[in-house]
Amino acid sequence: MQQLDVFNQGLIHFLQASPTPAHAVEVMRRQLQEAGFQELQEDQDWSLEPGQGYLVIRGGKSIVAWRQGLQEPQETGVRMLGAHTDSPCLKVKPKAEIFRNGCLQLGVEVYGGALLHPWFDRDLSLAGQVHYLDAQGQIQEALFDAREPLAIIPSLAIHLNREANKGVEANPQKHLPVILGQLNVSQNPLFAFRQWLASCLEAEGRQVTEVVDYDLSFYDVQPPAYVGLNKEYLASARLDNLLSCYVGMEALIACDQTQDATSLLICNDHEEVGSASALGAEGPFLESVLRRLTSGNEASYQKLISRSLMISCDNAHALHPNFADRHDENHGPKINAGPVIKINANQRYATSSETSALFDAWCRQAQVPCQRFVVRTDMGCGSTIGPLTSTRLGVRVVDVGVPQWAMHSIRETVGSQDPWYLARALVAFIQAARV
């Protein structure tokens, strides 16, 4: 249990330090480098040594990290783990300032399939990437995190909307602009958001001539926390899917430097909006790295793909006690009952009978319970990076994930034992003699 709590404390720290995909990748970069992984650049030549760990970052928001095996990758295949760094959120628009009824607001755009109502009445801060001109007129990039509560989206009082508890639609354009403060008519009523950003960066010691652009989103400042009489649950923002990023990273770091096979982790951005980008799973990032592992030799690359397998890790829908009828009666995953194999006959998940059986065997080897999820036949099914990766590369994939409640809410819940269960199963996969 002490080992479990240490693992969860690391997860809590990772979640707290990663309000955006760019921050998550930066934290992963630091932790991997502390574990001896070397950072490579895509625009440079690579010289890879057996047993050494490497990482490469694209766009600041997607990362591939791997431990080079002692044998050639095309001979053993690659043990791949996949996850995504992004979560549904509210992104600041380019021309964001709104001045109305004495209030200063910022316009936002909904990123991904967010549950909107949980964003109301939360203490919100702001974080992301900022690109600016320095004193020499060069474009520079900065990671920005205000950390303190800056904004709120207040609900309308029930006295002014008696139908509120009957399910009222939240209009993103009208109801989601965040409130930053009040405007005093005796003062200059104008507020330049980019100038404010510049002043924040200057306070950090940067020379900023002009903020040119940004990728910023709001987030809830409430920290992750254990919940339950016996700390059965862990509640936090961005569990979908930073939890899988952390678990995959820890499994990769834990793998033996004397492994024959190469083990790899990819964490893509843009999964929540379809993955169709240079940083997403539908893009070429993973393929380009794998091809470089075989020095561009096509026959070696094809051998690598045929001998490889990916575990696509993305959280699953746990059985909700108040809405049990939303699950197939035989396929309702329970919290703290182990990782979930996700199956869909229409290939919304890439799991096959073979890859399901393999993952089940690795769970047994790690002495970890295992569950299976199939969506109700009369309901639609979500998807993951699994089918996209399988389609693009032709590699075998099993889709799995930790069961969770309130997926895509600003505050989600998982079991406090399940991340540790998943980590143990992933280590068993990486250390398996064959896949």
From TrEMBL:
Annotated source species: Marinospirillum celere
Family to which this protein belongs: Belongs to the peptidase M18 family.
Top enzyme class: hydrolase
Record flagged with keyword Metal-binding: yes
Alphabetized Pfam families for the sequence: Peptidase_M18
Cofactor(s) the record lists: Zn(2+)
One GO cellular component term: cytoplasm
Superkingdom per UniProt: Bacteria
GO molecular function: aminopeptidase activity; metallopeptidase activity; zinc ion binding
Keywords: Aminopeptidase, Hydrolase, Metal-binding, Metalloprotease, Protease, Zinc
GO terms, biological process: proteolysis
PANTHER family registered for this protein in UniProt: ASPARTYL AMINOPEPTIDASE
Protein name, UniProt field: M18 family aminopeptidase
Enzyme Commission identifier(s): 3.4.11.-
Family matches, as NCBIfam families: PRK02813.1
InterPro entries reported in the protein's UniProt record: Peptidase_M18, Peptidase_M18_dom2
